[in-house]
Amino acid sequence: MSNRARSNVTRPSRPFRAPEKDCKVCKKPAFCEHYGVFSCNSCKSFFKKALDKGPHYCLKLGVCMKNPDLMSKCKACWFQKCVELGMTSCSLRKLRGSNEKLFDLVKNLLLIDVRRTSKIAGFYTSDDPTLDELVVNPRCLKPCEKDPSQILSILDWCFLLNSLQVVFFLDFEFIQNLPTMDKIYMFKANNLNDCMLAGAMRSVQSDWETLRTPTGHAYNTFELINQVDNSKELLKVIEKRVVEKMVDIKVTHEEFVLLSMVFFLDPATPNISETTAKTLAEYQNYYASALLQYCEFYHQKDAPTRFVDLLSIKSIVHKNTSDLKYLYLTFQNAITDLKIKKILFSTCDLPGAPQTYLGSENG
Ligand SMILES: [Zn+2]
Ligand SMILES: [Zn+2]
């Protein structure tokens, strides 16, 4: 044992210590731990502000994380570094003492979500795989440079968010290990719902009252909307519905990451095999009971009400995606030669899916 404490020292008082280590985040001199990580004052106050005012988007696909000079200029990469190193809110750390396992689970889900969110705004690709191609090989999506004058349409955004969502879920090993066809059925049934939930959460965190693109643009400014009668009205409803509910019941980021797993891992997904349904039921149970424990810790006797409130978001999300699918269908019907990326035929249930879709069984 290396106990270096001297007997004549009454109590070591932290603020007077000379900086003895570098800040784990930015490598500048630091004195003590903040938010659970040895860090300097500027990283501490950055993290405090960032917790209130997320989410953060990197426009360079996260490269600034690797360069300390760039990192402090990019909120997304700075925040991600803090979270990667284990910084957590004071409120979440309270959980640590009473339920370490749940604390670790939530902390990891938050990290995975921060990673996916930070790269969304900067991601662009001209690739156009089908859903099955993407499921078989998630690496087939290669980011490429966007022509700065090019404005993405509502359908482009829907494609990017949908495909990144597929890649995100395939990062979970137990999902990766499911049979390919079952994965395709899962994404076909649930991907758009989770995009909707995640999009609404990003709006809540950014203090936007409606769904917006990750770059902060309102969807109703897109040209497509003006070209098709009545679509503006329907879009107005879609933009507000889920966000309003989530603001209303004040869904936290921690609740969202658990809820997203509970919704996505749906054993009632049509067409999946019995074995997969069983696996999904197990995992869904696992995340649902984690969510319930989380509610119990933070809401005590009101936990059951909180839990039910959170689960009630599901039907609102479903109503919203079914309206969104209808909106896309009206675009498709009204505009001949509308360019729609292949994945959207599957995740948005649009007619006229390209040939390879749920394609050849010939292996
Ligand atoms: Zn620092
Ligand atoms: Zn960055």
UniProtKB/TrEMBL annotation:
<dbReference type="InterPro" id="IPR001628">
    <property type="entry name" value="Znf_hrmn_rcpt"/>
</dbReference>
<feature type="domain" description="NR LBD">
    <location>
        <begin position="126"/>
        <end position="350"/>
    </location>
</feature>
<comment type="similarity">
    <text>Belongs to the nuclear hormone receptor family.</text>
</comment>
<keyword id="KW-0805">Transcription regulation</keyword>
<keyword id="KW-0479">Metal-binding</keyword>
<feature type="domain" description="Nuclear receptor">
    <location>
        <begin position="20"/>
        <end position="94"/>
    </location>
</feature>
<dbReference type="Pfam" id="PF00104">
    <property type="entry name" value="Hormone_recep"/>
</dbReference>
<dbReference type="GO" id="GO:0003700">
    <property type="term" value="F:DNA-binding transcription factor activity"/>
</dbReference>
<keyword id="KW-0238">DNA-binding</keyword>
<dbReference type="InterPro" id="IPR013088">
    <property type="entry name" value="Znf_NHR/GATA"/>
</dbReference>
<keyword id="KW-0539">Nucleus</keyword>
<keyword id="KW-0675">Receptor</keyword>
<keyword id="KW-0804">Transcription</keyword>
<dbReference type="Pfam" id="PF00105">
    <property type="entry name" value="zf-C4"/>
</dbReference>
<keyword id="KW-0862">Zinc</keyword>
<dbReference type="GO" id="GO:0008270">
    <property type="term" value="F:zinc ion binding"/>
</dbReference>
<dbReference type="InterPro" id="IPR035500">
    <property type="entry name" value="NHR-like_dom_sf"/>
</dbReference>
<protein>
    <recommendedName>
        <fullName>Nuclear receptor domain-containing protein</fullName>
    </recommendedName>
</protein>
<dbReference type="GO" id="GO:0043565">
    <property type="term" value="F:sequence-specific DNA binding"/>
</dbReference>
<dbReference type="InterPro" id="IPR000536">
    <property type="entry name" value="Nucl_hrmn_rcpt_lig-bd"/>
</dbReference>
<keyword id="KW-0863">Zinc-finger</keyword>
